[in-house]
Amino acid sequence: MAPRKRTFKEDADAWRTEHTRDLPEAPMKFPVQDVSHPRESNKIFALINKEVVPTNWPDQTFDHIARNDLEIVENGDGTAQGTLQKKPVCYFCKEQRGPQNDVMLLTCDGQMSGEMRDGEVMSEKDRPFRPCGIRFHRTCASTYNADDYNFQYAARFECQGKILCPLHCCGACNVEHQKQSAYVPMLTQCAICLRAFHSECCLPGGAKPLNVAIRLGRSETSTFRMIVCPAHQDTTGTVIQKHLESCCEAGCPIEAKKNKEFENPKPSVPKPKKTPEEKLQQCKKCIRSFHPSCKATKKINNQDAPADICDNCVCQDTISVGVTVIALCPKTKKFQLGKVIRPTDGQLGMMEIKWLHKNRPASYPEKSLVPNSEVAEMRKCYLRIAAAGQLKFWAEEFKHWDEHHLMRCPKVYKKVFLEVKTSVYARKSKKMNTLLLPDVCKCGPNKNCERNECENHMDGRECPPHCASKKSPGFTCNNQLISLGYVHPGLEVRKTEEKGQGVFATEDIKEGEFLAGVHGEICDPIESKKRMEVIESAFDYQCNNYSMTLVQDYTMDMGKYGNITRYVNHSCDPNSELMMDYVFVEQRGKKLFWESRCYLEARKDIPKGTEVTIAYGFDRKNLMIDCKCRADNCTQDMSTKPELDKKVKTKKAKPGKGRKRGAQTVNAPPAKKAKK
Ligand SMILES: [Zn+2]
Ligand SMILES: [Zn+2]
Ligand SMILES: [Zn+2]
Ligand SMILES: [Zn+2]
Ligand SMILES: [Zn+2]
Ligand SMILES: [Zn+2]
Ligand SMILES: [Zn+2]
Ligand SMILES: [Zn+2]
């Protein structure tokens, strides 16, 4: 009998158990003798590694799809009965056969969130595993993009390495391009549509809490904390009394110009003849206004987006608890600055706003319930309507919020998908040109190819593996550290406050010491370009962009596979540096061939407990991440490329052709997408 073919899920599971190990919580030590070699399951790659389909968000999007895995009967007291429905059809197209004739239904790898015990949501550690089980076609999931959900990107190994439906990412984090934070667990799901939000930091204002008792088995029922998201509020008959007379779209050029003029009023000079300004359109559903040409969302559900409704209302964007807003005060009938707070009762479509005043007049309320349609996220252009006495206060509040609002997203401490000891070539990547170089090492019994005396090392290459066998017994060659995947034993990975993981010295390290070879996947120019496109199309400001240029447009990518060096953070005043070296790859007859690799070397003495840092030298200026190195000479944008100081230069220049500095050009993350 022929052996049964493994299903896709079994394949993927086997792949995962084979290739992921539970690494100990930080601080963690990297074992020097790690001999894992990555193999990739063809099937999962065939599914997710196809050409990356851009999600088209926010230009073309869809309504949040209604849940068809859960049927809800509300009891009217904030609780409901839920019945799970597992259907053998695609969640998105409701068919067995997909739009491109695909018959395979993928199953979501995620788990149900919000399960409660004794009236409290269980912690991630305590909750039992309840599979989500939603099934869908790959093509259908790749098309659906509400809240900037990107199935293909999430499934990739450099993101989550799992097949996940939209119920396992936070919609609020996602639209803010915080796509690694988005997948940090502890989400609250909407009971009506395919949407979820971080329970603590991203809960939408104006959502109604709903505790749903779900029957899980024959005799098991458990309660899940869910919400009814503001998208399900009945807005028929809403009339907006008053509009904000500034464009609500981010990146509006007209508002940018007006803001500038407002900040630096010029003495009246004869005004140049100007072309008539585009007229503002008032949104029919909320207090916002917009220039039709500034609108980012052109299509919804494959139809033209309504011309008289703003993007926020078309996409049913939420405003999270904690966000600074401008809202219509029901008492004063004026637009006031406020903050969305966690509601006490939670009425659908009503946000609880705490008003922000410099000195609140006694007649003004401290907080109010305001309909969602009368609240808008604060923008710079709305400062122009501040009352004279409040302007400075509003400007300070706005500036603080603008600089800090992304900090509410959960911190991410991601580990490399697979830890490798030495580099591997990416699949289908062509090998780089090897270099014909002689073995010039003349080390003898008393010289163990130490880094400061071996001729090979002085000439910028490692010794070939047979170096030791050429010498007398008892001889060890110390000039193969990159090839052997050696890592300095005095290094460990630890969580940092602001920069994710970092590498720290656990003992005093001297200037010039070898720290670790830089290992990951070697990508040829075509593969490198492809990977950059994936990152750019994902619009993930927290992307795993760990690729570093080697030579001839070849890159070392540590996004999926990597070693300790991938956790080294940037500093504008770094204490270590990337260096380049040649490692032996093959022997043909008597000829020896070498290839380029990078390694990390201490550039200064690194005292025990200090973080090991390098200068990234980002090669593009459109960086979205701000440098948090706190060095005196910080450039704020990680573009620093350190000059070798003179002492080092002369020391390195002496032997042979000298050693090359590593090309530490790290590719830049993507440019900002229009929305938010
Ligand atoms: Zn489908
Ligand atoms: Zn799911
Ligand atoms: Zn979130
Ligand atoms: Zn919903
Ligand atoms: Zn505009
Ligand atoms: Zn609107
Ligand atoms: Zn030697
Ligand atoms: Zn040697």
Automatic annotation (TrEMBL):
KW Coiled coil (keyword) present: no
Kindly give the SMART domains that the UniProt entry links to this protein.
SET (SM00317)
Please state what the protein is called. SET domain-containing protein
Cite the record's Basic and acidic residues compositional bias ranges: 8-24
Q: Where in the cell is it found?
A: Chromosome; Nucleus
GO MF annotation, one = methyltransferase activity
Tell me, in one coarse class, where this protein mainly resides. nucleus
Sequence ranges of Basic residues compositional bias? 648-662
Keyword S-adenosyl-L-methionine among record annotations: yes
Annotated signal sequence range: none
InterPro entries assigned: SET2_Histone-Lys_MeTrsfase, SET_dom, SET_dom_sf
List this protein's GO terms for biological process. Answer: methylation
Q: Which keywords describe this protein according to UniProt?
A: Chromosome, Methyltransferase, Nucleus, S-adenosyl-L-methionine, Transferase
Provide the residue span(s) of the region labelled Disordered. Answer: 1-25, 637-676
Indicate the segments forming the SET domain, all copies: 489-617
GO cellular component terms, alphabetically, are: chromosome; nucleus
